[in-house]
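User: ok so my PI wants both of these folded by tonight, can you help

Assistant: No problem, let's get them done. Here's the first:
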Amino acid sequence: MHRSRFFNDHGKAFLDWLFKGIHHLKDENSQEVVRLFEVEDGWELYRGRYCPPSSDPKNILVSPETELAAPPKEKARAGRMNPVGVPVFYGAFDRDTCIAELRPSVGGMVLTGAFQLLRDARVLDFGVLENIFDSQPMSCFDPAYRASMERRQFLRTLHSNQFASHA
């Protein structure tokens, strides 16, 4: 229950279709959709926690390395890429995005922290992917039009989908 889940051949076929060729995509500035972030490059990821007005932020401030890390498996809620019970670290490359993802209420407080990679990571950059899609015109006369449009729309929805609460 608390690890990556097995999925069937139908699920695998869908993911293969969805991400087919994605490792080779680059935008007009030669930015790759799938990017390798190496530890030695010193990349930082930002993670935040919304603090409702009734909460005490001191708990987070005392131990930010654990309070802002991926949640324990018992508290892991469903997110964009994980089911309930599977902890995932959702991070952003800048604080503004991190805060925007949390969608704090007016007057609400958000605490953020910067994390450095402990090992190399491959990251799917949805911003680059969307720029590529926007710059590639499609023809409704193309026999693959419907499948291509469905793929684009699904990836856009995945990118823009916001959940009411993050773990």
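One down. Here's the second:
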Amino acid sequence: MKRELITIAGSLGSGKSSTAKAVAQALGYRHFSSGDLFRKIAAERGESVEATNISAEAQKDIDYQVDELLQKMGKEEDRLVIDSRMAWHWMPESFRVFLFLDLDPAAERVFQDVLNKTRVSEHGQSLEEVRASIERRFASEQKRYMALYGVNPTDPKNFDLVIDTKNNSLDSVVQTVLEKYNAWRVDEIRA
């Protein structure tokens, strides 16, 4: 059964958080970012997000803490938009969106955010450093989620909608998500 839940996953730098916030605002839904929670955990540990990702490979409780909260939210809440790598897995009755962005433009976006100080959880003195950090985080996340849950969090087959954000503005991505979500909900009502 479909529910009033939208889960947005995606490549690093693809615009997950910005999209999720805008979609939630347009629908009057609550927004939750598991990335913000993960950044909070990293700060509490006195580590960078990348270091916490690497730590999570051995310390499974880091991912379990985030995933248990997502599972609880999925059982108890509706009218919610979540940006998260794994919420689609814990909430199969949600409208599942994946935002894709190739590594080079992702690194450019993230580096611009670092320079503009709008992304405080990332560090890097150069585009190359940011690119290398993104590659390491991606590899760590792929390894962890396969080991923990036996899933590939970037497989397009897991999602109802996949959008390449490279040549799409935030407004057009948000509009596409809203249109497809509304069509998805109408299909449930008809069924």
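The first helix runs from residue 16 to 27. The chain has eight helices and five strands. Good luck tonight!
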